[in-house]
Amino acid sequence: MLIVEPVTPVLSRTARPVPVWLIVPRFVSVALFPEMVTATVDPLTVSDPVLFMIRSVCARNMHCLDDRFMTFLFRRTSFAKSRTEDTPVSNSALLPEMLDHYRQVEESKRLFGGAGELERVRTQDILSRYLPPAPATVFDIGGAAGVHALWLAERGYGVHLFDAVPHHVEQARAASKEQAQHPLVSCSVGDARNIERPDASADAILLLGPLYHLIERADRLQALKEAHRLLRPGGRLFAATVSRFASLLDGLSRDLVSDPVFVEILEQDLRNGQHRNPTHRPEYFTTTIFHHPDELQQEMQEAGFQVERLVGIEGPAWFMSSLQSHWQVPQKRQLLLELLRKVEEDRTILGVSAHPMGIGRK
Known about the structure:
- The protein is an alpha/beta fold.
- Helices cover 38% and strands 17% of the residues.
- It is built from 14 helices and twelve strands.
- The two termini are 43 Å apart.
- 43% of the residues are buried.
Protein backbone atom coordinates (compact mmCIF):
# COMPACT_ATOMS: atom_id res chain seq x y z
CA MET A 1 0.00 0.00 0.00
CA LEU A 2 1.32 3.45 -0.86
CA ILE A 3 1.59 5.90 2.00
CA VAL A 4 1.49 9.62 1.34
CA GLU A 5 3.46 11.80 3.74
CA PRO A 6 3.96 15.59 3.51
CA VAL A 7 7.61 16.58 3.38
CA THR A 8 9.23 20.01 3.46
CA PRO A 9 12.77 20.11 2.06
CA VAL A 10 15.37 22.47 3.51
CA LEU A 11 15.21 25.74 1.61
CA SER A 12 17.64 28.52 0.97
CA ARG A 13 17.48 31.39 3.41
CA THR A 14 15.80 33.62 0.88
CA ALA A 15 13.17 31.18 -0.37
CA ARG A 16 9.66 30.44 0.88
CA PRO A 17 8.81 26.85 1.89
CA VAL A 18 7.85 24.57 -0.97
CA PRO A 19 5.68 21.66 0.26
CA VAL A 20 6.30 18.42 -1.52
CA TRP A 21 4.08 15.31 -1.32
CA LEU A 22 6.45 12.39 -1.10
CA ILE A 23 4.93 9.05 -2.11
CA VAL A 24 6.87 6.04 -0.82
CA PRO A 25 6.14 2.32 -0.90
CA ARG A 26 6.56 1.94 2.88
CA PHE A 27 8.08 3.47 6.00
CA VAL A 28 11.40 2.21 7.24
CA SER A 29 13.26 2.90 10.44
CA VAL A 30 16.29 4.72 9.03
CA ALA A 31 15.72 8.44 8.50
CA LEU A 32 16.85 9.92 5.21
CA PHE A 33 18.53 13.27 5.86
CA PRO A 34 16.60 13.92 9.11
CA GLU A 35 17.57 17.56 9.02
CA MET A 36 15.82 17.91 5.68
CA VAL A 37 12.71 15.73 5.71
CA THR A 38 10.05 14.69 8.20
CA ALA A 39 9.43 11.24 6.75
CA THR A 40 11.63 8.20 7.25
CA VAL A 41 12.51 6.80 3.85
CA ASP A 42 14.99 4.26 2.62
CA PRO A 43 16.26 5.65 -0.71
CA LEU A 44 16.87 2.15 -2.02
CA THR A 45 13.15 1.31 -1.73
CA VAL A 46 11.96 4.36 -3.64
CA SER A 47 11.35 3.40 -7.24
CA ASP A 48 12.44 5.50 -10.20
CA PRO A 49 8.83 6.24 -11.30
CA VAL A 50 8.06 7.59 -7.84
CA LEU A 51 11.13 9.83 -7.84
CA PHE A 52 10.27 10.92 -11.36
CA MET A 53 6.85 12.05 -10.08
CA ILE A 54 8.52 13.96 -7.23
CA ARG A 55 10.91 15.53 -9.70
CA SER A 56 8.02 16.66 -11.85
CA VAL A 57 6.46 18.44 -8.87
CA CYS A 58 9.72 20.04 -7.75
CA ALA A 59 11.41 21.00 -11.00
CA ARG A 60 9.67 24.34 -11.35
CA ASN A 61 10.78 25.27 -7.85
CA MET A 62 14.31 23.90 -7.92
CA HIS A 63 15.77 27.36 -7.31
CA CYS A 64 14.39 27.11 -3.76
CA LEU A 65 15.59 23.63 -2.87
CA ASP A 66 18.66 22.68 -0.92
CA ASP A 67 21.27 21.13 -3.20
CA ARG A 68 21.52 17.95 -1.07
CA PHE A 69 17.78 17.34 -1.43
CA MET A 70 17.98 18.00 -5.17
CA THR A 71 20.84 15.50 -5.43
CA PHE A 72 18.65 12.84 -3.80
CA LEU A 73 15.75 13.58 -6.14
CA PHE A 74 17.78 13.27 -9.32
CA ARG A 75 20.40 10.71 -8.32
CA ARG A 76 18.32 7.68 -9.19
CA THR A 77 15.77 8.85 -11.73
CA SER A 78 15.91 7.68 -15.30
CA PHE A 79 15.31 11.35 -16.16
CA ALA A 80 18.86 12.13 -15.13
CA LYS A 81 20.16 9.22 -17.19
CA SER A 82 19.25 10.79 -20.52
CA ARG A 83 22.81 12.04 -20.89
CA THR A 84 24.92 10.31 -23.51
CA GLU A 85 26.42 7.12 -22.10
CA ASP A 86 27.85 5.45 -25.15
CA THR A 87 31.35 6.93 -24.76
CA PRO A 88 33.60 5.57 -21.99
CA VAL A 89 34.99 8.17 -19.61
CA SER A 90 37.62 8.01 -16.91
CA ASN A 91 36.59 7.47 -13.31
CA SER A 92 37.89 10.50 -11.41
CA ALA A 93 37.03 14.13 -12.05
CA LEU A 94 40.56 15.41 -11.38
CA LEU A 95 43.91 13.66 -11.38
CA PRO A 96 45.96 13.75 -8.15
CA GLU A 97 48.45 16.26 -9.53
CA MET A 98 45.57 18.61 -10.43
CA LEU A 99 44.26 18.46 -6.87
CA ASP A 100 47.78 19.06 -5.55
CA HIS A 101 48.09 22.12 -7.76
CA TYR A 102 44.90 23.66 -6.42
CA ARG A 103 46.03 22.97 -2.87
CA GLN A 104 49.09 25.11 -3.58
CA VAL A 105 47.44 27.87 -5.61
CA GLU A 106 44.56 30.00 -4.33
CA GLU A 107 42.45 30.29 -7.46
CA SER A 108 40.29 33.13 -6.11
CA LYS A 109 43.34 35.26 -5.30
CA ARG A 110 44.87 34.57 -8.71
CA LEU A 111 41.99 36.41 -10.38
CA PHE A 112 42.61 39.62 -8.47
CA GLY A 113 46.12 40.47 -9.59
CA GLY A 114 48.25 40.69 -12.72
CA ALA A 115 47.12 38.77 -15.79
CA GLY A 116 44.56 36.95 -13.64
CA GLU A 117 42.76 40.20 -12.96
CA LEU A 118 42.68 40.94 -16.67
CA GLU A 119 41.17 37.48 -17.20
CA ARG A 120 38.50 38.12 -14.56
CA VAL A 121 37.51 41.57 -15.81
CA ARG A 122 37.41 40.49 -19.44
CA THR A 123 35.46 37.30 -18.66
CA GLN A 124 32.85 39.31 -16.79
CA ASP A 125 32.68 41.86 -19.59
CA ILE A 126 31.92 39.06 -22.07
CA LEU A 127 29.34 37.48 -19.75
CA SER A 128 27.61 40.83 -19.18
CA ARG A 129 27.08 41.19 -22.93
CA TYR A 130 25.95 37.68 -23.85
CA LEU A 131 24.21 36.18 -20.81
CA PRO A 132 20.40 36.26 -20.76
CA PRO A 133 19.08 38.93 -18.39
CA ALA A 134 18.68 38.26 -14.68
CA PRO A 135 17.05 36.47 -12.92
CA ALA A 136 18.09 33.68 -15.30
CA THR A 137 19.37 30.41 -13.83
CA VAL A 138 23.11 29.91 -14.33
CA PHE A 139 25.10 26.74 -13.65
CA ASP A 140 28.75 27.61 -12.98
CA ILE A 141 30.36 24.21 -13.55
CA GLY A 142 33.97 24.24 -12.47
CA GLY A 143 33.26 27.51 -10.66
CA ALA A 144 36.12 27.08 -8.15
CA ALA A 145 35.76 29.39 -5.14
CA GLY A 146 32.92 31.27 -6.79
CA VAL A 147 34.51 34.47 -8.09
CA HIS A 148 32.28 34.67 -11.17
CA ALA A 149 29.30 32.97 -9.51
CA LEU A 150 29.20 35.47 -6.65
CA TRP A 151 29.54 38.37 -9.07
CA LEU A 152 26.55 37.05 -11.03
CA ALA A 153 24.50 36.45 -7.88
CA GLU A 154 25.05 40.10 -6.92
CA ARG A 155 23.49 41.02 -10.24
CA GLY A 156 20.34 39.03 -9.60
CA TYR A 157 21.11 35.69 -11.26
CA GLY A 158 20.16 32.39 -9.66
CA VAL A 159 23.55 30.68 -9.60
CA HIS A 160 24.31 27.04 -8.83
CA LEU A 161 28.03 26.34 -8.42
CA PHE A 162 29.66 22.95 -9.01
CA ASP A 163 33.34 22.12 -8.64
CA ALA A 164 35.42 18.97 -8.44
CA VAL A 165 37.66 20.36 -5.66
CA PRO A 166 35.95 20.13 -2.24
CA HIS A 167 38.09 22.96 -0.87
CA HIS A 168 36.81 25.26 -3.61
CA VAL A 169 33.21 24.40 -2.78
CA GLU A 170 33.82 25.11 0.91
CA GLN A 171 35.31 28.48 -0.01
CA ALA A 172 32.35 29.29 -2.25
CA ARG A 173 29.85 28.39 0.48
CA ALA A 174 31.68 30.59 3.01
CA ALA A 175 31.81 33.50 0.56
CA SER A 176 28.12 33.05 -0.25
CA LYS A 177 27.26 33.35 3.45
CA GLU A 178 29.22 36.59 3.63
CA GLN A 179 27.20 37.84 0.65
CA ALA A 180 23.95 37.28 2.51
CA GLN A 181 21.85 39.68 0.46
CA HIS A 182 22.75 37.88 -2.77
CA PRO A 183 23.77 34.29 -1.93
CA LEU A 184 24.41 31.45 -4.32
CA VAL A 185 21.42 29.15 -4.71
CA SER A 186 23.58 26.06 -4.16
CA CYS A 187 27.19 24.89 -4.04
CA SER A 188 28.03 21.25 -4.77
CA VAL A 189 31.04 19.04 -5.34
CA GLY A 190 30.47 17.72 -8.84
CA ASP A 191 31.92 16.25 -12.01
CA ALA A 192 31.30 18.27 -15.19
CA ARG A 193 30.49 15.05 -17.03
CA ASN A 194 27.71 14.06 -14.65
CA ILE A 195 25.76 16.89 -13.01
CA GLU A 196 22.83 15.65 -10.97
CA ARG A 197 20.25 18.12 -12.16
CA PRO A 198 17.31 17.61 -14.55
CA ASP A 199 17.24 18.18 -18.28
CA ALA A 200 16.61 21.74 -19.47
CA SER A 201 17.09 23.27 -16.01
CA ALA A 202 19.55 26.12 -16.78
CA ASP A 203 19.34 29.23 -18.93
CA ALA A 204 23.13 29.50 -19.19
CA ILE A 205 26.13 27.36 -18.28
CA LEU A 206 29.70 28.41 -17.58
CA LEU A 207 32.47 25.88 -18.25
CA LEU A 208 35.44 28.08 -17.38
CA GLY A 209 37.85 25.32 -16.42
CA PRO A 210 36.60 21.76 -16.94
CA LEU A 211 37.50 21.57 -20.62
CA TYR A 212 41.19 22.02 -19.97
CA HIS A 213 41.32 19.62 -17.04
CA LEU A 214 39.57 16.85 -18.98
CA ILE A 215 42.58 15.75 -20.96
CA GLU A 216 40.80 13.03 -22.97
CA ARG A 217 38.63 14.17 -25.86
CA ALA A 218 35.89 11.67 -24.93
CA ASP A 219 35.66 13.23 -21.47
CA ARG A 220 35.43 16.76 -22.89
CA LEU A 221 32.68 15.72 -25.25
CA GLN A 222 30.86 14.10 -22.35
CA ALA A 223 31.06 17.35 -20.36
CA LEU A 224 29.85 19.37 -23.35
CA LYS A 225 26.98 16.96 -24.00
CA GLU A 226 26.07 17.15 -20.33
CA ALA A 227 25.93 20.94 -20.59
CA HIS A 228 23.74 20.58 -23.67
CA ARG A 229 21.38 18.30 -21.73
CA LEU A 230 21.14 20.73 -18.82
CA LEU A 231 20.42 23.81 -20.93
CA ARG A 232 16.94 24.90 -21.88
CA PRO A 233 16.29 25.37 -25.61
CA GLY A 234 18.01 28.57 -26.67
CA GLY A 235 20.28 28.53 -23.60
CA ARG A 236 23.90 29.61 -23.92
CA LEU A 237 27.14 27.87 -23.06
CA PHE A 238 30.33 29.79 -22.23
CA ALA A 239 33.27 27.38 -22.54
CA ALA A 240 36.84 28.50 -21.85
CA THR A 241 40.04 26.71 -22.81
CA VAL A 242 43.77 27.31 -22.49
CA SER A 243 45.42 28.26 -25.77
CA ARG A 244 47.75 25.82 -27.51
CA PHE A 245 50.29 28.68 -27.63
CA ALA A 246 50.07 29.80 -23.98
CA SER A 247 53.35 28.20 -22.91
CA LEU A 248 55.15 29.64 -25.93
CA LEU A 249 54.04 33.20 -25.20
CA ASP A 250 54.47 32.90 -21.44
CA GLY A 251 57.86 31.22 -21.79
CA LEU A 252 59.20 33.92 -24.07
CA SER A 253 57.76 36.87 -22.14
CA ARG A 254 59.00 35.64 -18.73
CA ASP A 255 62.14 33.91 -20.01
CA LEU A 256 60.96 30.54 -18.75
CA VAL A 257 62.62 29.10 -21.85
CA SER A 258 65.94 29.45 -20.03
CA ASP A 259 64.90 26.26 -18.23
CA PRO A 260 65.51 23.22 -20.49
CA VAL A 261 62.73 21.32 -18.70
CA PHE A 262 60.25 24.08 -19.55
CA VAL A 263 61.37 23.94 -23.18
CA GLU A 264 60.47 20.22 -23.22
CA ILE A 265 57.06 21.05 -21.74
CA LEU A 266 56.59 23.77 -24.35
CA GLU A 267 57.55 21.53 -27.25
CA GLN A 268 54.98 18.92 -26.23
CA ASP A 269 52.33 21.63 -25.86
CA LEU A 270 52.95 22.76 -29.42
CA ARG A 271 53.04 19.19 -30.69
CA ASN A 272 49.77 17.85 -29.26
CA GLY A 273 48.44 20.23 -26.60
CA GLN A 274 49.02 17.73 -23.77
CA HIS A 275 50.59 19.90 -21.08
CA ARG A 276 52.54 18.05 -18.38
CA ASN A 277 54.58 19.43 -15.50
CA PRO A 278 57.15 16.92 -14.18
CA THR A 279 58.70 19.60 -11.95
CA HIS A 280 55.55 20.22 -9.88
CA ARG A 281 56.46 23.91 -9.86
CA PRO A 282 53.04 25.62 -9.67
CA GLU A 283 54.07 28.38 -12.09
CA TYR A 284 54.40 25.68 -14.75
CA PHE A 285 50.74 24.78 -14.12
CA THR A 286 49.50 21.17 -14.00
CA THR A 287 48.28 18.34 -16.21
CA THR A 288 46.09 20.04 -18.79
CA ILE A 289 44.97 20.05 -22.41
CA PHE A 290 45.84 23.19 -24.38
CA HIS A 291 43.33 23.70 -27.19
CA HIS A 292 43.76 25.06 -30.65
CA PRO A 293 40.75 27.39 -31.22
CA ASP A 294 39.59 25.22 -34.11
CA GLU A 295 39.46 22.19 -31.79
CA LEU A 296 37.20 24.03 -29.36
CA GLN A 297 34.74 24.86 -32.13
CA GLN A 298 34.77 21.27 -33.41
CA GLU A 299 34.12 19.81 -29.96
CA MET A 300 31.26 22.20 -29.23
CA GLN A 301 29.63 21.45 -32.56
CA GLU A 302 30.03 17.71 -32.08
CA ALA A 303 28.22 18.05 -28.74
CA GLY A 304 25.26 19.66 -30.49
CA PHE A 305 25.92 23.38 -29.99
CA GLN A 306 25.54 26.11 -32.55
CA VAL A 307 28.80 28.03 -32.08
CA GLU A 308 27.86 31.69 -32.18
CA ARG A 309 31.32 33.12 -31.62
CA LEU A 310 34.84 32.39 -30.47
CA VAL A 311 36.41 35.17 -28.41
CA GLY A 312 39.83 35.75 -26.92
CA ILE A 313 39.44 36.65 -23.27
CA GLU A 314 42.79 38.39 -22.65
CA GLY A 315 43.82 38.95 -26.26
CA PRO A 316 47.50 39.87 -26.68
CA ALA A 317 47.61 41.94 -23.47
CA TRP A 318 48.25 39.25 -20.84
CA PHE A 319 51.92 38.73 -21.71
CA MET A 320 52.73 42.44 -22.24
CA SER A 321 55.59 43.63 -20.02
CA SER A 322 53.74 46.96 -19.71
CA LEU A 323 50.42 45.41 -18.57
CA GLN A 324 50.68 46.65 -14.98
CA SER A 325 51.60 50.20 -15.97
CA HIS A 326 48.55 50.31 -18.25
CA TRP A 327 46.30 48.68 -15.67
CA GLN A 328 47.13 51.09 -12.85
CA VAL A 329 46.16 54.21 -14.85
CA PRO A 330 42.35 54.39 -15.23
CA GLN A 331 42.43 56.00 -18.69
CA LYS A 332 44.97 53.51 -20.04
CA ARG A 333 43.10 50.62 -18.47
CA GLN A 334 39.85 51.68 -20.09
CA LEU A 335 41.56 52.10 -23.47
CA LEU A 336 43.13 48.66 -23.14
CA LEU A 337 39.76 47.04 -22.43
CA GLU A 338 38.12 48.87 -25.34
CA LEU A 339 40.84 47.72 -27.74
CA LEU A 340 40.63 44.13 -26.54
CA ARG A 341 36.89 44.18 -27.15
CA LYS A 342 37.47 45.38 -30.72
CA VAL A 343 39.74 42.45 -31.59
CA GLU A 344 38.24 39.71 -29.39
CA GLU A 345 36.71 37.80 -32.33
CA ASP A 346 39.56 38.23 -34.81
CA ARG A 347 40.45 34.66 -35.79
CA THR A 348 43.98 35.63 -36.86
CA ILE A 349 45.00 36.45 -33.27
CA LEU A 350 42.57 34.28 -31.29
CA GLY A 351 45.31 31.85 -30.29
CA VAL A 352 47.44 34.52 -28.60
CA SER A 353 44.84 34.87 -25.88
CA ALA A 354 45.66 32.71 -22.87
CA HIS A 355 42.01 31.62 -22.74
CA PRO A 356 39.97 31.40 -25.94
CA MET A 357 36.26 31.07 -25.15
CA GLY A 358 33.49 29.54 -27.20
CA ILE A 359 29.94 30.82 -26.91
CA GLY A 360 27.35 28.36 -28.12
CA ARG A 361 23.57 28.07 -28.19
CA LYS A 362 21.46 24.98 -27.71
